[in-house]
Design goal:
Largest sheet: 6 strands, parallel
Number of strands: 14
Order of helices and strands: EHHHHEEEHEHEHEHEEHEHHEHEHEHEHH
Strand content: 15-25%
Distance between the termini: 84 Å
Number of helices: 16
Shape: globular
Oligomer: single chain
Strand order of the largest sheet: 1-11-10-9-12-13
């Protein structure tokens, strides 16, 4: 049963469980990465047979396989995927950045170029845990950024194929190349390249603990989006809400993972009790009841801040939750008060699932309090910037002495000389 506290009975920082799991995951992943670097495709085939029970002759998905998968997916779902893609594309188009140039002084030109990252690797969980939404959310911003090549990896099922809904979403999103490989070995292949799989410049996408650790270990060889932890939701709901609705919203995250955290902050002890009762009614009816039960019992909490919703905002800012629902009649009255949150869902008719699948804002979000300093996945994650400077001879001559003076103050004589040497013979 979910735990209930009065506001202040538990420290805000302890409301979300942040369990640190110590194991030999780091060593296991390091061995996998080393094996893939040394043996390439041969190592990938061994891991596919060992972990996925799939014997593969080749890794790249063919056009025929994609068309076969597309034909097997219900037309209604294809139309929903296409509509979701339109919404995601429209939102992320607004994130595009422009290069700029400044040439306000005679003989001086400075500026910044915004350029797409050339090759991006997209990791998508596969098998029975198939998330076509991840394909759309992670590849469409890369397409908008103008990335030259988007390479997707996803673990095969035992029959040697990738789940059809994954391939269908990839076709709709315009993914360039797709490979049947998963786990830490897929991350290693993207980071270093193999005979079949090209090396990329950045790896994005969620995965299990091994995938997360692999991304951490290859960072520096390639860029990564983030190290995502268990999912979190913080629901701020006053007593005018329907307890059944709020319970369902909490369970939408609890069913993800036994380590997921679902927290409600409310202004009413009676409403808190009603939500707790609803959770007990709804959990047994879920196909993933065992996972939801473990999540609610272990990490679920209801915080009662009687007659003071503003205290809920304080909790939100302390926790920096991945998902924040403001189930209030006038949610925009509170929006400016939110300082830290991955994605904010406004009002009583905006369940977090709307953001997961359909609305358009990205669902790849910072977890574990990292929303204090990081942001949802966006077009910005798929571009890089170069700056440039041009000075004419006369423009440099005007400031050469100042540059030399500055450099000498730092004890860097060669720096100073490089600024003045061009004019020494004049």
């Amino acid at each position: 049963m979910i735990k209930m506290y009065k506001y202040g009975e538990v420290a805000n920082a302890e409301i979300f469980a942040r369990e640190n799991v110590t194991s030999n995951v780091g060593d296991v992943v390091a061995d996998i990465i080393a094996n893939v670097r040394k043996n390439g495709d041969r190592a990938l085939k061994e891991y596919s047979e060992k972990f996925d029970r799939a014997k593969l002759d080749r890794f790249e998905v063919t056009d025929a396989e994609i068309e076969e998968a597309f034909a097997s997916v219900p037309a209604e779902f294809i139309e929903i995927l296409k509509e979701a893609a339109v919404n995601i594309r429209a939102f992320h188009e607004k994130q595009k950045r422009n290069s700029f140039i400044l040439n306000e002084k005679d003989g001086v030109v400075i500026g910044q170029k915004v350029m797409p990252i050339e090759k991006v690797g997209l990791y998508v969980p596969g098998g029975t845990a198939a998330y076509p939404s991840t394909v759309l959310m992670d590849s469409i911003p890369a397409k908008i950024a103008g990335c030259e090549q988007i390479v997707m990896v996803s673990p095969p099922m035992a029959n040697g194929k990738i789940n059809p809904v994954i391939l269908t979403a990839a076709k709709i999103a315009g993914v360039d190349r797709i490979y049947k490989v998963g786990g830490a070995q897929a991350v290693a292949a993207l980071a270093y390249g193999t005979e079949s799989i090209p090396k990329v410049d950045k790896i994005v996408g969620p995965g299990n603990a091994l995938v997360a650790e692999a991304k951490k270990q290859v960072f520096g060889v390639v860029s990564i989006d983030m190290i995502a932890g268990p999912s979190e939701i913080l629901v701020v709901a006053d007593k005018t809400n329907d307890p059944a609705v709020i319970a369902a919203d909490l369970l939408s995250q609890a069913e993800h993972d036994k380590n997921a955290s679902a927290v409600l902050v409310t202004d009413s002890k009676e409403f808190a009790a009603a939500v707790s009762e609803e959770l007990e009614i709804q959990i047994p009816k879920l196909p993933r009841a065992e996972i939801a039960r473990a999540s609610i019992d272990k990490n679920g909490k209801i915080i009662i801040a009687e007659n003071d919703i503003i205290k809920a905002i304080d909790i939100a800012n302390d926790l920096a939750p991945e998902h924040l629902e403001l189930c209030l009649d006038n949610p925009f009255d509170y929006l400016d008060k939110i300082k830290h949150a991955g994605s904010i869902f406004m009002g009583k008719n905006c369940p977090e699932a709307l953001g997961d699948y359909f609305a358009g804002p990205n669902h790849t979000l910072p977890t574990g309090g990292t929303a204090r300093f990081s942001s949802p996945l966006s077009v910005d994650d798929f571009v890089k910037k170069s700056q440039y400077t041009y000075y004419s001879a006369s423009a440099l001559e005007k400031v050469a002495g100042k540059i030399a003076y500055f450099a000498n103050k730092e004890g860097l004589d060669a720096h100073a000389k490089s600024a003045t040497v061009r004019f020494d013979k004049k």
